[in-house]
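Bug report (template v2)

What were you trying to do?
Predict the complex of my protein with zinc ion.

What happened?
Run completed; filing so the output is reviewed.

Input:
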Amino acid sequence: MEFEGLVIQVIPQKERDLIARVLLRQGTLTSFYVYGGMGGGKNSKPRLYEPGNLVRVHVRGNQSGHTSQDSLKMVNEGSVLWQGKNIRHNPQAFALACLYLEITLKTALPHHDDDVVGEHQGLFNALSNGLFYLDQAVGVGEWSWTNHFSLFMGKFLHYLGILPDENECVFCGSELETENLIPLIVDQGGYSCLSCYQQSGIQVKMTPVRHHLTHAVRTRFQDWQQVQGVSRETCQQLIEFWGYHYQVKLPDLTSYRLLG
Ligand SMILES: [Zn+2]
């Protein structure tokens, strides 16, 4: 059997083996065991299984019998279909790519061979485009991690179906003010009108998060240069919003700290 997907995480095993956790094109997560995958040794094979690489793997035999189970698959051979040229040479881009991977790892569902095709494909598209255009931007030389992250999260939240309603107050359902600064109430899953916000006693940092998120959802990945002026605070709110749905707290994301 053949699989294609993005390497999300590499876990070394024994001396030179590894387990690669891969987000398949279908948008679900599976694990491959690769003998000698860490490279080195007599033949000094190059490492195919670097996080962020798009790989194609052939799996030994036809491991049927438990087709609906996500068992560890033994890799026969593999090849790299895509690898970023620039990300790994730029510490901040590398940290951002790791954040994309970490968020995906905490979001994606395990793969089952009888999954409905296409159901989770949007997740794969968001991640692969996020990595591809980040690599392109670093190559061009003018980029900011916050702008890229907001674009990625716009696509990611959209595919997950958890985007906050940009028009209605999450408390009273009335139409939201057109002002730029509208409070995002993470644990309610939406924006609040100013009157409900004042009554609620909740305190959140007011940022133009609605403006940026709405823009990100409508902007194609290849038009990343049109996304401008996103602050770190806005990015933090987007993470907290996603994290509330997936029970992840900001300090749990190790790669976020690396962004400095
Ligand atoms: Zn309201």
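What did the reviewer find?
The first strand starts at residue 2 and ends at 13. The beta strands are 2-13, 17-24, 29-34, 54-59, 73-82, 184-185, 190-191.
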